[in-house]
Amino acid sequence: MKTKIFPLNKIAFACSLLLANPLAWAEDQFDASLWGGGSVLGIDFARFNVKNAVLPGRYEAQIYVNNEEKGESDIIFADNPATGRAELCFTPKLQEILDLMDEAIVKSPNAEDDTCVFASEAIPQGSFEYQSGEMKLKLELPQALTIRRPRGYIAPSRWQTGTNAAFANYDINYYRSGNPEVKSESLYVGLRNGVNFGNWALRHSGSFSRFENQSSSGFTDKGKNHYERGDTYLQRDFALLRGNVTVGDFFSTARIGENFGMRGLRIASDDRMLAPSQRGFAPVVRGVANTNAKVSIKQNGYTIYQITVPAGPFVINDLYASGYSGDLTVEIQESDGKVRSFIVPFSNLAPLMRVGHLRYQLAGGRYRIDSRTFDERVLQGVLQYGLTNHLTLNSSLLYTRHYRAGLFGFGLNTPIGAFSADATWSHAEFPLKNVSKNGYSLHGSYSINFNESGTNITLAAYRYSSRDFYTLSDTIGLNRTFRQFSGAYLPEIYRPKNQFQVSLSQSLGNWGNLYLSGQTYNYWEKRGTNTQYQVAYSNSFHILNYSVNLSQSIDKETGKRDNSIYLSLSLPLGDNHSADSSYSRSGNEINQRLGVNGSFGERHQWSYGINASRNNQGYRSYDANLAHNNSIGSYRASYSRDSLKNRSTSLGASGAVVAHKHGITLSQPVGESFAIIHAKDAAGAKVESGANVSLDYFGNAVMPYTSPYEINYIGINPSDAEANVEFEATERQIIPRANSISLVDFRTGKNTMVLFNLTLPNGEPVPMASTAQDSKGAFVGDVVQGGVLFANKLTQPKGELIVKWGERESEQCRFQYQVDLDNAQIQSHDIQCKTAE
Predict the structure, then answer these.
(1) How far apart are the two ends of the chain, measured CA to CA in Å?
(2) Which residues on neighbouring strands pair with residue 520, listed in sequence order?
(3) 428: helix, coil or strand?
(4) Which of 12, 104, 441, 693 could hold 790 in an S-S bridge, CB 3.0 to 4.6 Å?
């Protein structure tokens, strides 16, 4: 934990160090003669003749048990009449964090009673030490009295619900293109909104889109404004279930079996509730744009992402996790209007689980697809169990009125790699055709990683060995077709028959990296087999980075064969700038590109790119893009034109608006869980580990991502705040629940220096080395020579202060004060400090 220390008068600073020192060992004696003799001044120095001398009050501390960090908490020291010194109080919060066996605790605190139960009495076999300089509380205890927990374990009672708040995530992309013959423009607004109240989280996702095309002849095609609804659900977690309950419109998230949209109820486990050491994904999308292009990504028929990218390779690695499976369709619309698409497979293999661990999901409701809800009622159950260290059992059941399916499989860990296999049986009914079909599907996979050689091999085989195997979506889709077109016949859709995939990645050390992949697949009701191969190699020569990518796709039904090659070079041009070029050939078309890109700004908040490209048919294009990231969002713009007189312009913005108890804050896009940071009067202070995040005028900021069920450290760098603002601490801990919105309040105060010239009723100055506290017991300042109180910890403009130089009533006094905390200048007041009558 860090604190911001401000310069004080040398005498006062030395005095404060003396009083705060916790390591006054028992065999040492405090030399009161340094202060002219305690008896002369009327000061009781006895408290400093013992180890761990601490003044009474409330402190923040990191808690350690046998050198293992347990967490952060406020701790309280109170005077113990039996020992004549301040001792640690054993509070319910401290008991919760220490997580000790019952045998270790002799006397437990009462949550409804403020009476201090001293830690030395509650845990007589323990040894406590508070290090105020490092703000640490350490407990040494026989290991037999501690509860053995997995590394990183956090008790569910410490998970934090967060605050009531609302947010709206937005992703806006405006795209305009045209030439002398036709012009078009489109607008896409992706939304992900939420409201948190108590333990419940309400979430909604959707997208708004519109387009307009206009030809030179005057014909205009205006598309309808369209809003597409995604998920809308209410969710909360339950520690007892080690999972969560979801009600509303959602996608099932089974790691095995089929996933689909549903309106209903789901109860599912959440592995993130486990300790990090006990825990076992959206994929990364890569592609190449030939010009300044619009990239759209769809899953289950729903657009989940859209962005404009410059010419050249692009990587999209910030997709929201919308489910555990469901292939992604990536569409690339070039500036000349050409559209290309490809599929990114997304079907996680069921992983191995630790022995005794259980993963489950039970969901029931009505089937949903493309924002429509059907009358077909669905019940799904999924169960995975770690039977041994080497064997995991997987099972799944799916039931509707016209469809049933069951899956059984296993994952096997062996010295020669990991195996996974499962078999699915299905029964599909088509009542309008008086037909039912029984089928099965077999699936197997194998993977191995050779750490010594840097080789990773993944082999996955899917074989639909039965012509009569149908999925739930197949069955519902066909029954829907039969209701609309009575003359339709049964085998009208392409259904997978055989699919085989293999990939290999190899690290070659100084010789670079090699990647090989291949897949082949075919369908029932369709002749021929589709085959794809890819070979990629990357390396560097001094500061020059280069890569080569070769691919081939073969469609035996049409006889079409597509061979392509892609070469790229990248050369750094100093800090954060580089030049890159590429050469690609696909069929008879050759494309060449040259570009410069980089970032600039104090925190690299600006990025840019300039590109020029041409092909062997005389086509040329030029584009430029600029982006900016700051505390309140991300903004981007691009422009392109080509030799065919096509032009395109795009503008984009993404961010969030968060409403909370301290106001409304603009933010970068927020994730599933995030934190609101508030520090009064600290505008401009930077948030540590938050990319380009600073406190706004109102002292608020948003940390866009936090990790649920883990300790998250939220830090503040106060260097850009006003000089007279003091932070009580510049780092805090939170342990958020999933979907929670944490509120992290940093206690601050204006570093207003107030000098109180204190005299007692008899006219004598208040004794030097006395300490002052406010009415809540918080430390305010120390008294130096001449009875001068240096008060630089005042949090209220008026109130009462208590000054102590001993523990007896006759060794303390109190007075009322009123000051201007907004005045950065030193203020001085002459005050009589009243003693007890």
Answers:
(1) 43
(2) 500, 531
(3) strand
(4) 12
